[in-house]
């Protein structure tokens, strides 16, 4: 059921800001709990009522105490809290005023869903509205009549804009009902926060620092190289050339030339491996030391619709630099098992345990589903089938492949192919990926596996180019393509966001490719048409987006755009579908009374009652054990397509439930 304006309360706080007391330098929690922090005013609107502004030191009817009473009353009546950045306004309500709500909606999330830069000024411009210029946020604004009027008008306008944007979301048929629930669940989790074991963090930081010191000593005693120059790439490259005659253009591990150049020089391999170990331990030590400074709980750690595909992002200054998406696992590429203990720093509440499950090879399953590769889908669906052996065995008919046993390296090659080649990865990139997973593998063997994948699943290759041709036709001819699996159409509304291509997913959600630009480029086979879109379109000349990575560039109109290739488009679609599957399952878990603590990529972690079974270490649990029941519910829900996603009917879904009793994220 879609929410309504009538059962919502719209809120915007204006607070003290100085050169040192600012969200540009502090997390929201640090800012709100700083002794110098103070609320200047707050604008509140109940339902469709007029916006009212309440001030510090104002008479009782217009004072902040009255504003708190209004919010307490709204909370008791079950109103939804709506703001443009609930992580700020909601945290003030919770931590300073002790007021929490049963449900929330963050209008910045809806802005990101629309494919635009999510600041209030930009979101307002998208809808043809205007945010006012910011006044000074200081005590002087309360004592001067004109300054106070300006502050009140600014605050009231922001609240009115939040209500307007919420109205747009409610009326937007392309914004699915489930997204309101997901938006609110994310806001609720961010305000609840995650517990961090800061004592354990401090101990781990000290241990990692000691490991790094040991690695530095080993390096210094082995190589005649100044360890203070380890981060200076040019000096490292010169040393490789002078010492072993190895000429490299970069130290990028993804460069296949690096592996080829050092494969027969064990000393050079050790030099680079030790250097990488030192670098990794330095970075990990810094991260864990930062976690030790978190005041036992981290807020605003998850960002709803943070990526263009709708996938969640995490981390940033507001989360105390803790990124649950990038925490090391015990099995990590650096092969430093101690790094896996970074996950032990996230702990459940007193009396609770974590229970975790993740979707198995979900992206490979979705690629096969969208392409209609039924043989591959059947293997994913078959109980007990090892899809990697099934794929690899016909390529090597004269050998026996056994998981964890005879010729397991061939199974690993099959796994890398099935999981990695669905998006159109090139051979050199695939080679680099395989060499990381299966060291010492020959190029010929990798080429054989690469070719076999292309020949075995032609429909997967075909769908990449079919989707891109369809996208190009929509962008150029401005027509609609209703064909499944991803209908597309063109829109020029609103004009502020530029021409857009809308891709409809089989989950019912849409991806918006805003401000499309087509360019003719000269390639190795002649001219070809390239397409670019703005992942966070700017709708007002005063707003500038930032280039965030490779493949992006700023155009003359100020927009930062990313290039759309067949590989990028199919990856976008697949990741978006995987995201929708995971969040619909998370909603099912919540409906069954399992509180989702957080999720990372395709893994969901719930908090349940602590297991007290005496034989839990042997995986034996009493009847009625809440921890055991949570695992059964996760297995049932995450091994099937939710009924709320009929467009994914026929997709074989499987999950892996972690069976160790969790006293932290890691175990």
TrEMBL record:
Keywords assigned: DNA replication
UniProt-listed SMART domains: POLAc (SM00482)
Gene3D superfamilies associated with the record: 3.30.70.370, 5' to 3' exonuclease, C-terminal subdomain (1.10.150.20)
Entry EC number(s): 2.7.7.7
Domain DNA-directed DNA polymerase family A palm: 340-612
Reactions this protein catalyses: DNA(n) + a 2'-deoxyribonucleoside 5'-triphosphate = DNA(n+1) + diphosphate
SUPFAM superfamilies: DNA/RNA polymerases, Ribonuclease H-like
Transmembrane segment boundaries: none
Protein's recorded name: DNA-directed DNA polymerase
